[in-house]
Amino acid sequence: MTENKPLVFSDEMPERYIMEMNTDKHEIALSTKDLEVYYGEKRALKNADLKFERFKITSLIGASGSGKSTFLRSLNRMNDTVGTVNGQIIYRGLDVNSSKIDVYEMRKHIGMVFQRPNPFAKSIVENITFALKQHGIRDKNVLAERVETSLRQAALWDEVKDNLDKSALSLSGGQQQRLVIARAIALQPDILLLDEPSSALDPISSAKIEDTLLELKQKYTIIIVTHNMQQAARVSDYTAFFHMGEVIEYDLTRKIFTRPKVQRTIDYVNGNFG
Ligand SMILES: Nc1ncnc2c1ncn2[C@@H]1O[C@H](COP(=O)(O)OP(=O)(O)OP(=O)(O)O)[C@@H](O)[C@H]1O
């Protein structure tokens, strides 16, 4: 990034950032450098350097309190009001963590889905169109197209297409979570951050969310916090293991689960949490 480059995002195609990741060339959608987070005096995240490959799913795993959510929430500045975030978050050559970034605009590019489904107390269709209208999209055809496309991508369209005016709160938990995913992708972000998106759901709904994520990675770069190791192994290409605020190991998921290099990771994936 040059000093004079304005810190605003454009809708132009992103420049291509090719970096070395292991031995192959991979396109990096987002990276962090020396990212650390303090809550008051407490350092909850230490010097996290991670690179996220475009159109891949990366899981963040680790015991409760290890800093996964803190890291994830920092990526689109959700920690601004609760903690102090130092270091860089590089996206399209810009530092998302800079005070000059338009956070509202940035979140159009880096969207987030939380653990508990949190649809608005509005109709299904309004849940999708609300943010679009806020961002100035008024054309009825464009709105209708975005509603259908995002609901299809979130694998919910067939279940709700005849009841789009029904209250979102009348949907099941699993459907609500897919609606929230549809709401996030209606803005056509590049990157989707998900904080334990299926932990509050039954196994069937959870499996549907996993299928949805595998579909979505054709178009989105996905970073997901999960406590469910099987889920991490099933859906993700890369896995980062966090322990006490540090990234201990980051590699291809199959390596983390079959041949981890660090003893702490070996213990964690083998279920020895002591
Ligand atoms: N808003 C906050 N204020 C103060 N401390 C916080 C806050 N959020 C998190 N922490 C602390 O920061 C540390 C990391 O928490 P974080 O939620 O990031 O961990 P986690 O790995 O995501 O845990 P979990 O899996 O339980 O969600 C913990 O010690 C936690 O108590």
From TrEMBL:
GO BP field: phosphate ion transmembrane transport
GO cellular component terms, A-Z: membrane
InterPro entries named among the record's database cross-references: AAA+_ATPase, ABC_transporter-like_ATP-bd, ABC_transporter-like_CS, P-loop_NTPase, PstB-like
ABC transporter domain segment(s): 30-269
Keywords: ATP-binding, Cell membrane, Membrane, Nucleotide-binding, Phosphate transport, Translocase, Transport
Keyword Nucleotide-binding: yes
NCBIfam families in the cross-refs: 3a0107s01c2
Protein name: Phosphate ABC transporter ATP-binding protein
